[in-house]
Amino acid sequence: MPGEKQTAVKYYVGVDVGSASVRAALVDGFGTVVAHAEQPIQVWEPQPDHYEQSSADIWAACCSVTKEVVRGVDASQIRGLGFDATCSLVVVDKQLQPLAVNCEGQNHRNVIMWMDHRAVSQVERINATQHRVLNYVGGAMSVEMQPPKLLWIKENLPESWEKVGYFFDLPDFLSWKATGVTARSLCTVVCKWTYTSDRGWDDSFWKMIGLEDLVKDKYEKIGNHVLSPGEAVGKGLTPEAAKDLGLPEGIAVAASLIDAHAGGLGVIGADVKGHSLPCENEPITSRVAMICGTSSCHMGVSETPIFVPGVWGPYFSAMVPGLWLNEGGQSATGKLIDHVVRGHVAFPELEAKAAASAHSIYTYLNSHLDLIKKSLPVGFLTVDLHVWPDFHGNRSPLTDLTLKGMVVGLTLSRGLDELALIYLATIQAIALGTRHILEAMQAAGHDVTTLFLCGGLSKNPLFVQMHADITGKPVVLSKEVESVLVGAAILGACASGDFASIQEAMAKMGKIGRVVQPKHEHKRFYDKKYEVFLKLVEHQREYRSIMNSL
Can you tell me the distance from the alpha carbon of 121 to that of 392, in angstroms, rounded to the nearest whole number? Predict the structure, then answer.
């Protein structure tokens, strides 16, 4: 913790709400994380594809972790607060109390999580309209966006629908709790709600899909006051929120970001001089930030709008002011790896051996792969084992939530070797999916030379190396592992007025850690793996067509 000799140092608090936990960090003006805290939050899964949370539980966790990271710090040194969160839907009633999003009437469960796929019928009907707003989400809306979820509530929970005071994207709910101001972030409303920075809301879209109620009240329920990310919200922290968070009343609170976008903000603008990277002396548009956690997001920016089939956007100023954003994604990555590993019959053996060696299960698996590779490069062990990773549907670039996962090359073997191989093949499949997304972006006009990785999976060296080898691009890892939290703190720094712009804060607070180069001598092997990868989805569609002919 800072001592008396550092009284001139300015600090910013970043709060990140992920799928399973809330984290906070105290960050200085050079992007160094000085203190960090984390607390789990509850997830309910009342039925398949329904995922719910509690906004009260989330806010309580935000307060707890924030108090922890600022404990012992001179309050006058804390200059700003920034939030990021998953793009989950929060519902409150006209008295601003939590309102049920479930058939059981459990009001405390008032959040439909981003990964909830209950609104399949609704999104199919929305996409059938072919409305012009769909051009800005890759041509087809995802079930993970907010309009289908709103339509699901109206159709399935009419009593709740009549009682609604506000619908918030979770990042905006947090800035509202902190300031009492219902302003929305341009990031959330553009990326998940169909708002556009030049035209605002499109009345014809909401009327066409059956949500004309939202138009009648001039969009009061979903937001008619929009701020740019990093812009100061209201008069700062309210007395009540200041007490809850353990922060000074009135400190600057920033308009928020979706978590993936905060991660992008924390890494994509870093100074790369001296690392011999192809993006050095090139504009930021040559970079893609990849935020890898429960799911993965691929964030690329451009000076002019680029329409990429199957990739969300272009969104103007949704992450970096003045630039257009395209966002590719994979709905299940960290979650998929956990699912494959923990569901294997040899998992108890792995767990015991990892514990005995005082390593995580993934560090142990990486070491085990090194033992069994013999003279081969590790990646070549999967020459006969192939995975299609869409166990939770395909977000990009195929935009097909009906796709299923596939594994080709299984045997009767059930041991630790086989678990290590399916783990490796799953990581490779995720990296091949990234290559698929990057190729779609490049075909549409992006010129990507370098990947910038952050998030939990970026801590796994095998995951990082496979992404470098399979895409053929160098991977830059940030100095601070918690880049998402740095991104949230950058927002607070901008809101405080200590930096002239987000770009200035990004350059000063985003730092490079190390660079992982692709092993170009392995290119031919991964080119062949990619050919197989594309064949897998082709075959899946063929057999589905056969069965659908019944």
Answer: 16
The angle subtended at Cα 406 by Cα 401 and Cα 409, nearest 5°, is: 170
Amino acid (1-letter code) at residue 228: S
CATH of the domain at 92: 3.30.420.40
Q: Are 334 and 293 in contact (CB under 8 A)?
A: yes
pLDDT of residue 170: 98
- Asked if residue 397 has a cis previous peptide bond (ω within 30° of 0), the answer is yes
Q: pLDDT at residue 366 above 60?
A: yes
The total number of structural domains in the chain stands at 1
Widest CA span of the chain, in angstroms? 77
Cβ–Cβ under 8 Å, residues 382 and 431 = no
Contact between 189 and 258 (Cβ < 8 Å): no
The continuous run of DSSP H or E covering 417 comes out as helix 416-444
Find all residues with CB under 8 Å of 419, minimum gap 6, and list them. 341, 344, 346, 347, 350, 365
Between 537 and 482, the more confident residue is 537
DSSP state of 91: E
Mean residue pLDDT across the chain: 95
Q: Residue 137 is part of which domain span?
A: 11-255
Residue 366 lies in a domain: no
Residue 281 is assigned to a structural domain of this protein: no
Q: Is residue 228 part of a domain?
A: yes
Asked whether residue 335 is assigned to any structural domain, the reply reads no
DSSP 461-499: HHHHHHHHHHHTS-EEEESSS-HHHHHHHHHHHHHHTSS
| Chain-centre distance for alpha carbon 394 | 15
Cα separation of 223 and 236, whole Å?
A: 19
